[in-house]
Write a structure and sequence with these properties.
The complex is a heterodimer of chains A (284) and B (135).
Chain A (H helix, E strand, L loop, with lengths): L1 H25 L11 E5 L29 H9 L28 H4 L5 E5 L3 E6 L4 E6 L7 E3 L2 E4 L2 E3 L6 E8 L2 E7 L21 E10 L2 E9 L8 E11 L13 H16 L9
Parallel strand pairs in A: 4-8
Antiparallel strand pairs in A: 1-2, 1-12, 2-3, 3-4, 5-6, 6-7, 8-9, 9-10, 10-11, 11-12
Chain B lengths: L1 H17 L18 E11 L6 E7 L5 E7 L3 H6 L12 E8 L6 E8 L5 E3 L12
Parallel strand pairs in B: 3-5
Antiparallel strand pairs in B: 1-2, 1-4, 2-3, 4-5, 5-6
Classes of the chains: A alpha+beta (284), B alpha+beta (135).
């Protein structure tokens, strides 16, 4: 009887220790120092990064807390865009999203449109992001070079003026052991690149700050701040600690592309007739 | 006077001919998501493409007349996440399709599910968070 009692006491005492050991075994290892490489996917499911109604933290849904601080020029630029999604969506016949002509999405829209599986590679000189959509990449320099300066017609690198780019010019520094801070300027503005699918604008004065914080070995948080004094009266957060999780390194990421030929066929067979009056039916 | 009339006529002709919508890739507004239609038909084509995959099939009505339907799904990446593939359908297969029809009454719709000849059901909303998210 006494023996049974002793065993019960020992088991009761050991239970919390065994339980905490089990929890610890399920915890991912800590984040490695200065390393965000890996194949990452949205932690809350593959659709979490689609952001159909606009940027994740500030969707265009008419809620007061999601109103953007437009300058008069910014508001005018927004109104000149005719988006297919969001609270100001126009009828399908009247939208002019460059996406549907298979134009490059550009940056930072690349972070706000179908942000899906994203491969990050890095070495001592640079971090490279390989996006799933449109098989597009960005190079982010970590070799200590300075961020170029915004000048008329593009950016100044040393004494040379270089052209604006769809994906801009990016440099990054480690803010701490597990947080990379990326600064990007020199993007195409206004009509060439939209900020998001809701038609929010950006200009050639845009500065973007991204913070990629590796929370632990398997999880990353991605934040993006928009600072564009020509369009917005103050900086604002477009993506706030968007959660990504690490995938199997052997993962072979599928293509997601925009093909003008497939788009044309889709519109002819389905997009056009489904959007307009019945008289637009395709000939069969 | 004649110089003014001719450009005006050209402009008017242009407006009449191009005032129809420059239709294209659409949002959710085109569909009647309160109405679900179930159709039995024969596959004529499965087009695995971006921005949406298209399933074409013929439906024979009670009067013997065949109506050609086209149903769209999400893009190939999302459909793959939901268990669909480029080889999900074969031409000539008998299928049962549930879809949200377009509002303008044409035989077009957004696919919800497809039941294959062996009874297996493919769910087009799997991998998405529902109709609203289905772009």
């Amino acid at each position: 009887m006494l023996k049974r009692f002793r065993i019960s006491i020992i088991l009761l005492m050991a239970a919390p220790i065994l339980s905490s050991l089990a929890v610890a075994q399920n915890q991912p290892p800590p984040a490695p120092r200065h390393d965000i490489s890996g194949t990452w996917e949205p932690a809350n499911g593959p659709q979490d990064g689609v952001q159909a109604d606009g940027v994740k933290a500030m969707p265009n849904d008419n809620k007061p807390q999601h109103q953007l601080p437009y300058t008069p020029y910014g508001l005018q630029a927004f109104k000149s865009h005719h988006a297919l999604e969001g609270a100001q969506a126009v009828l399908p016949g009247f939208f002019d999203d460059p996406r549907d002509k298979c134009e490059p999405l550009g940056f930072p829209r690349m972070n706000f449109y179908n942000l899906r599986e994203t491969q990050i590679l890095q070495n001592e000189y640079k971090v490279v992001m390989l996006y799933q959509y449109a098989t597009t990449w960005r190079v982010i320099w970590t070799d200590g070079r300075e961020l170029p300066k915004i000048v008329d017609g593009g950016v100044a690198v040393g004494g040379e003026v270089k052209e604006p780019r769809y994906y801009g010019y990016s440099v990054a520094k480690w803010a701490d052991d597990t947080t990379l801070v990326i600064q990007t300027i020199g993007m195409m503005g206004e009509d060439r690149v939209w900020l998001d699918t809701a038609g929010r604008p950006i200009s050639d004065q845009l500065r973007v700050e991204e913070r990629l914080h590796r929370v632990d070995h398997d999880h990353l948080e991605w934040s993006v701040t928009i600072d564009d004094p020509k369009i917005y009266t103050k900086p604002w957060v477009a993506m706030d600690k968007f959660p990504m999780k690490l995938e199997d390194p052997h993962r072979d990421v599928m293509e997601q592309y925009c093909s003008p030929a497939e788009m044309e066929r889709y519109n002819k067979l389905f997009g056009d007739p489904s959007s307009g009056p019945a008289s637009h039916a395709p000939k069969q | 006077m004649r110089r003014k009339i001719i450009p005006a006529l050209i402009l008017a002709f242009g407006i009449v001919n191009f005032s129809g919508p420059l239709l294209a890739h659409h949002g959710t507004a085109a569909f009647d998501t309160d109405k679900k239609v179930t159709l039995k038909g024969t596959v004529t084509e499965w087009f695995w493409s971006n921005p949406h995959c298209l399933l074409q099939f013929d439906v024979k009505g009670d009067n013997g007349q065949v109506v050609h339907w086209i149903g769209e799904t999400q893009n190939p990446v999302t459909m793959t996440n939901g268990g669909w593939s480029k080889t999900s359908f074969k031409v000539g297969e008998e299928i049962t399709v549930a879809l949200f029809p377009v509002k303008n009454g044409l035989p077009l719709g957004r696919i919800i599910t497809v039941v294959l000849p062996d009874g297996k059901m493919l769910d087009a909303l799997k991998g998405t968070s529902g109709v609203r998210d289905y772009k």
